[in-house]
Amino acid sequence: MVKRMKKKLRITFNSPLVLGFALACAAAALAGTITGESSTALLFSTYGTSMTDPLMYLRLFTHVLGHAGWAHLVGNMAYILLLGPALEEKYGWKNLLIVILVTALITGIIHNLLFPRTILLGASGVVFAFILLTSFTEFKEGEIPLTFILVALIYLGQQIWDGITVKDNVSNLSHIIGGLVGGGAGYLFNRTKHDTRKW
Fold first, then answer.
1. In the chain, how many domains are there?
2. What's the CATH number where 161 sits?
3. Is the pTM of this model over 0.90?
4. Which has the higher per-residue pLDDT, 176 or 165?
5. How many C-beta neighbours within 10 Å does residue 184 have?
């Protein structure tokens, strides 16, 4: 009688960039709780300030790590952890890091120019970048996926509508910018992948 060896289950660190990003967001939230949100204002949010302030340039990237409370963090991380691993596997951690950094930088700059007296923080722009990037997973050269069109209409259309009609603390502009970055990245990554021309 042959006995089958049972394979032991183990937890794997399957998506280093996404998990690292989620842990960094959690650490920023914990630091904010401990410091009474002073660390969040100093390091993990962006707003108009002096061009000579070196932290201003750091905050253009790190504002995506900060969140306005644990509920805000959990809401964003649910999407990041759901969509991120598949994207990291398909495009690689370097390309996904570029998407995160570009989303952070563009949303930070535009926000500071248009709304210098308002604080911006949170990973929702990155979430929308991931959503639109995910819709490009079945991309083929010369085609635009219908899923991308529908996702763009549903998610970005809602953000544009909400931005016009709803007055709240949600940065619809960062959602729209993140979606545009994700859609553009999806097109470029897949076009490059399918382009076999030699330069």
1. 1
2. 1.20.1540.10
3. no
4. 176
5. 16
